TrEMBL record:
<feature type="signal peptide">
    <location>
        <begin position="1"/>
        <end position="27"/>
    </location>
</feature>
<protein>
    <submittedName>
        <fullName>DUF1501 domain-containing protein</fullName>
    </submittedName>
</protein>
<feature type="compositionally biased region" description="Low complexity">
    <location>
        <begin position="233"/>
        <end position="251"/>
    </location>
</feature>
<dbReference type="Pfam" id="PF07394">
    <property type="entry name" value="DUF1501"/>
</dbReference>
<dbReference type="InterPro" id="IPR010869">
    <property type="entry name" value="DUF1501"/>
</dbReference>
<dbReference type="InterPro" id="IPR006311">
    <property type="entry name" value="TAT_signal"/>
</dbReference>
<feature type="region of interest" description="Disordered">
    <location>
        <begin position="228"/>
        <end position="251"/>
    </location>
</feature>
<keyword id="KW-0732">Signal</keyword>
Amino acid sequence: MDTLTRRRFLIASGVVGGAALAAGATAYTLHDILATAGDRPSDPDTRTLVLVTLYGGNDGLNTVIPYADPAYHTARPELAYKPEEVLRLDNSLGLNPGMTGFKRLYDAGRLAIVRGVGYPKPEHSHFRSMDIWQTGQPDHPGSTGWLGRWLDATGGDPRHAVSFEPVLPPVLAGATTAGAAVPPRSNATTAVPAGFGRTAPGEPPLQARAARAYADLVEVDAMVTHLPPTPAPGGSAAASGKAAPKPASAAPRSPVAAQFDLVARCVEAGVATRVFSVSLGGFDLHADEKEAQQQQLTELDAAVTEFVERMGRSEAGRDVVVAIYSEFGRRVRANASQGTDHGTASDLFVLGTPVRGGLYGAQPSLTDLDDGDLKFTTDFRDVYATLLDGVLGTDPARILDGWSGQVNGLLL
């Protein structure tokens, strides 16, 4: 295989950047992460965080539904769920009908719902609000992610914070280092010669490295596109890091489920990674929201529930905490297109064995509004501080510009 042709192909298809190859930067692969198996600290208090970003601004009022509040039905008469449709948590709140797994985890005490999460002087711009959430700095424009700063403070090994998304999210970018991006799929893996993944005698080291990275992407693509999750720990697949044989009835995995499959594989292998980043988009629903959002939440519910239940079956998995957020909620009143426009405060989910399930934070009023928006009752930095302290074992004030408030009782 012509190495120059392959190099151009790899750059054009996004497998590695041309600047990275020219500068000698190392592209991380799944095998690089799995190679850290056994390097994890032996401290029994060491836990793992899986941060899930819902891009687009998920409608919190149709996710955790105040079905008993007349103001909810008045504000969105056609968009609102009827009391008999929701999955009831108590006599006033219920989950979206698509979240049957979350309801099961809530009943088992492994799902916490933090209500009214937001920040002062909220932004309605997707980009600015997501920037605030990912930097953890609502008071001023930030240039580093809150988990990137954690990575800086703990030695700066990129493999300690891993994203299985197409690109590395800003939340994992620090001042001196950044996490490792290992995309679960690549457009490079479609109908191309197998020779792109093989090295050639005498090939320059960086191009050989690019070839191995490409081969790894092909393997990962095959795994997440066709295979079901690896079996529960104890089997040879998890221990060896090799994919299980493809069953005849295997169906393609959803993108978010594929990301969780890779996280589970790494956790069960005992890798050194302390933070994983996962995402799901498609929540910016300005029209015909009800059915579309329920489909999105059903996809999320299936992937997260399967992952949390799988994690509960292994020692390493029982130290995993999942946190799910979106850049903002939606306005209380439905618009004329039976959707909702950009709002402010919303719900944040925390799941896993180390979680003390239940409801946290005050429920925002649907009548005492800020120009049509919910008033936040919990600062998102309280949640971040809780995760930094209780999951990552780090002083939150070092990472969050002196912030020290927490959500009391959230973690066991």
